[in-house]
Write a structure and sequence with these properties.
This protein is an alpha/beta fold and 131 residues long. The chain has one domain. The protein contains 4 helices and 6 strands, in the order H-E-E-E-E-E-H-H-E-H. The strands form 2 sheets. A 3-stranded parallel sheet has the order 1-6-2. Strands 3-4-5 form a 3-stranded antiparallel sheet, covered by helices on one side.
Length: 131
């Protein structure tokens, strides 16, 4: 069992397209196209994956696996959301997401591995002590 869930702390869950799967009551979907979605998106390209800002922005490099591209996109989101011009966005997200479970399509990490999903960054933002 996920340690966060066992302790009652907000957790990130993977959304599933599985008959009977439902998000827990009060959980918030934070993927695209919600206001909480990561503006850094993964694009499949020949030879790997690219990360693009928004729908029409430039792309960054080519990553051999979607996991590596997801890691890059998550760190890019962390940097972006913590920029001074995102102060109002951070305050709004913290107010709307504090204490809530978050759902996203990204796969969950193996136990002990880092979570390369922007929802993990949002959990830290909403429930952490950073302003």
């Amino acid at each position: 069992m996920n340690r966060q869930i066992a302790l009652g702390a907000p957790a990130r869950m993977q959304r599933l397209r599985k008959k009977g799967w439902r998000a827990p009551d009060g959980a918030v979907y934070v993927g695209r196209p919600t206001r909480f979605g990561n503006p850094y998106r993964l694009l499949r390209q020949s030879g790997g994956w690219a990360v693009q800002f928004g729908d029409h922005g430039g792309s960054v490099g080519t990553f051999p696996t979607d996991a590596e591209a997801r890691r890059y996109a998550t760190e890019a989101f962390r940097i972006w959301i913590n920029q001074p011009e995102q102060d109002d966005t951070r305050r709004l997200f913290r107010a709307l997401l504090h204490g809530r479970d978050l759902t996203c399509w990204c796969p969950l990490p193996e136990p002990g591995q880092p979570d390369h999903c922007h929802a993990a960054v949002l959990l830290e933002l909403a429930n952490g002590t950073t302003p």
